[in-house]
Amino acid sequence: MSLRARKLDEEKREALLTAAMEEIAANGIDGASYNRIIERSGLSKGVVYYYFDNKESLYLTVLEEVERKFLASVGKLKMPAAREEFWTACRSYYEKAIRYGAGNLGIVRVVRSLADPSSGMKGSAEMRENFKRVERWTGNLLKRGQDLGAIRKDVPPDLLRNVLQAVGHTMDSWFFENLEKDPGNVSVEEFLSSALDMFRRILSPEGAEVHG
């Protein structure tokens, strides 16, 4: 994010970021129009271009804002200190995250669009760093689980992390897409139960023998 962006008047900043999130949620990152965002915000082009060098810097600020809102609502996962706490803590945090997403589908659409590897943001150095940060966090969580004996050690750490991220992305995508299409036929409780069961079957030392 540009240093100048941090000096943007809070009211104008909120108007601009809200307009950007609405535009991205409605049209995807590649279909979003910088001019429509400016028009939605009610600000002049001169003001917007003064604070943001280009649309990429604005989009990255949007991602930071989404992360801020998420953490303000869900918080951070406190790393478990004992094996018996590991899966309980993970379930609790995952449930908070899913319920937050279910209540903020517009934000989910923004994140999915910004993080889509096929989008125009994929070449951004800042976006790559954001992905690396998520990978480091996931790797640290898996390492803690291994140290506590709650996560299997017979698979290379990077492969285990990639599998977890791929499965998580696929399951979350299915959930939110179906929740938007037909919310009456999607149960958050059933999804959470099946998702956690699948994660444990894949990641725990006991594998497919794990139930509950």
Describe the structure in your own words.
With 212 residues, this protein is mainly alpha-helical. The chain contains nine helices and no strands. α1 crosses α6 (105-115).
Q: Could you give a short description of this structure?
A:
Helix content is 73%, strand content 0%. The protein is an all-alpha fold.
Set down the secondary structure blueprint.
Blueprint: H1 10-31, H2 34-41, H3 45-51, H4 55-74, H5 83-103, H6 105-115, H7 125-148, H8 157-181, H9 188-203
What structural keywords apply?
single chain, 212 residues, mainly alpha, 9 helices
String of helices and strands: HHHHHHHHH
Overall structural class, as computed from helix and strand content, comes to mainly alpha
Proportion in β-strands? under 5%
Shape: elongated
Please count the beta strands (DSSP E, at least 2 residues each): 0
Number of separate helices: 9
- Helicity, in percent? over 70%
List low-pLDDT spans. Answer: 1-6
Q: Please describe the biggest sheet, giving its number of strands, its sense, and whether it closes into a barrel.
A: none
- pLDDT averaged residue by residue: 85
Calculate the terminal CA-CA distance, rounded to whole Å. 44 Å
Alpha-carbon Rg, integer: 19 Å
